[in-house]
């Protein structure tokens, strides 16, 4: 049966599909129709919006069972896609046991497979960081063996896997100076600060902190994305300075996203309470758990009462997560993790959005196969990813 929606009763085929009487050929036609359809098209062929969404989920499970009939896999985890990109739901397979997405679309749209234009597949990021001490001594942490990195005059720095920790003894006699731990693109690392505060750095991020927290406050400086679990100390408030604003806390858990050049910086509170204000002055805002504060380059501060915590914290769980995220923001995250530059050559003004959860352990080519579902094509030249019109 040739595919021509003008000559096919899609509504009848859909009902045969739900009844379990559709042939393989008819199911293939339905898959093809669903990729190009939205809820308006569904209404024309007498399919309700609920049936349309159920239809997509059912096809997703059908594809999963066909592709992996010979493997023991966990149930499919479903994600909601808006109607414009509902096609993604029909071809995106999520294996909960591994977190991987699978792409199966070659029989529907005979477009050039993205793997054919990715010559050297950039590797995903890994653990790694540079630790620079106040005396300019530097340690490449991903090259060091586990164990004591430095032990001198009451300061002990120990590396254990993907974390470095500071311990300060009462015999600490060295002059307090600032140390900096920094990750490049394609790196992440964790640190326990001298006061016992835990911090986790995402790619292209840095954390500047004193070798000892003297006086009546603890102040650090952040660039990029850093998660904090602050050691409680009622006598010494903890302050984070980042991209034109300050976060003041006593003991709490929160995430700072403050990449230089990004249009917005964000602070998301997971536990406790924080007070946020511009460094140049202005109105201070107190956040409660679940709040996400957003600050633009002009210093305008707004607060979302309930941020999308699952999406915001996905990086800590080894995943990218997007919900109707504009494609340029998706690509910016990929740029930092896969160490690639982005050349956006889209000529139209229509925004493209993507929703889904992708493992950060995936190869870039696997990620790009999924992103093609948002009607975007790519070409990789060296470390430059060209987004084609």
Largest sheet: 19 strands, mixed
> What CATH first level of the largest domain would be assigned?
Mainly Beta
Number of strands: 26
Classify the secondary structure makeup into a structural class.
Answer: alpha+beta
Based on CA atoms alone, the radius of gyration comes out at 25 Å
The CATH architecture designation of the largest domain is: Sandwich
CATH names the topology of the largest domain as Jelly Rolls
Helix amount, in percent? Answer: 10-25%
Mean pLDDT: 78
Number of domains: 3
Q: What global shape is seen? A: elongated
Describe this structure in words.
The chain has 389 residues and is an alpha+beta fold. The chain folds into three domains: 5-110, no CATH class; 127-310, Jelly Rolls, CATH 2.60.120; 312-388, Phage tail protein beta-alpha-beta fold (3-Layer(bab) Sandwich), CATH 3.55.50.30. The chain is 20% helix and 35% strand. The protein contains eight helices and 26 strands. The protein has helices at 10-19, 24-36, 39-44, 49-67, 87-91, 309-312, 327-338, 364-371; strands at residues 92-95, 100-103, 126-127, 130-132, 138-140, 147-152, 155-160, 163-168, 178-182, 187-192, 198-201, 206-210, 218-229, 238-242, 245-249, 253-258, 264-271, 274-278, 285-287, 292-296, 301-304, 319-326, 341-344, 353-359, 377-381, 384-388. The protein has a 19-stranded mixed β-sheet that branches. Strand 10 and strand 11 (198-201) form a beta hairpin. The longest helix has 19 residues, at 49-67. It is elongated. The model is unreliable at 63-118 (pLDDT under 50).
């Amino acid at each position: 049966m040739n595919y021509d929606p003008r000559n096919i009763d899609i509504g009848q085929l859909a009902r045969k599909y739900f009844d379990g009487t559709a042939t393989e050929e008819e199911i293939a036609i339905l898959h093809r129709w669903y990729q190009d359809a939205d809820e308006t098209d569904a209404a024309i062929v007498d399919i309700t919006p609920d049936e349309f969404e159920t239809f997509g989920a059912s096809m997703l499970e059908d594809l999963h069972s066909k592709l992996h009939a010979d493997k023991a896999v966990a149930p499919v985890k479903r994600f909601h896609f808006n109607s414009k990109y509902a096609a993604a739901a029909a071809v995106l397979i999520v294996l909960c046991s591994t977190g991987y997405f699978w792409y199966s679309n070659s029989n529907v749209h005979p477009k050039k497979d993205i793997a054919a234009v990715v010559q050297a597949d950039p590797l995903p990021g890994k653990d790694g960081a540079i630790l620079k001490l106040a005396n300019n001594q530097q340690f490449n942490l991903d090259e060091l063996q586990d164990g004591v990195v430095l032990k001198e005059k009451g300061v002990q720095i120990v590396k254990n896997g993907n974390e470095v920790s500071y311990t300060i003894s009462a015999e600490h006699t060295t002059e307090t100076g600032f140390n900096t731990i920094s990750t490049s693109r394609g790196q992440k690392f964790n640190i326990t600060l001298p006061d016992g505060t835990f911090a986790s750095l995402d790619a292209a991020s840095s954390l500047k902190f004193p070798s000892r927290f003297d006086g009546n406050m603890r102040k650090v400086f952040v660039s990029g994305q850093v998660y904090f679990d602050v050691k409680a100390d009622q006598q010494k408030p903890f302050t984070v300075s980042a991209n034109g604003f300050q976060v003041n806390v006593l003991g709490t858990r929160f995430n700072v996203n403050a990449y230089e050049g990004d249009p917005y910086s964000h602070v998301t509170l997971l536990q406790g309470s924080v007070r946020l204000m511009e460094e140049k002055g202005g109105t201070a805002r107190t956040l409660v758990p679940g709040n996400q504060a957003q600050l633009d380059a002009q210093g305008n501060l707004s607060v979302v009462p309930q941020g999308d915590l699952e999406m915001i914290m996905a990086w800590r769980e080894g995943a990218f997560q997007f919900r109707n995220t504009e494609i340029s923001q998706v690509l910016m995250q990929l740029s930092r993790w896969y160490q690639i530059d982005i050349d956006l050559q889209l000529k139209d003004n229509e925004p493209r959005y993507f929703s889904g959860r992708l493992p950060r352990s995936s190869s870039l080519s696997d990620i790009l196969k999924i992103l093609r579902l948002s009607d975007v094509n790519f070409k990789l030249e060296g470390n430059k990813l060209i987004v084609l019109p």
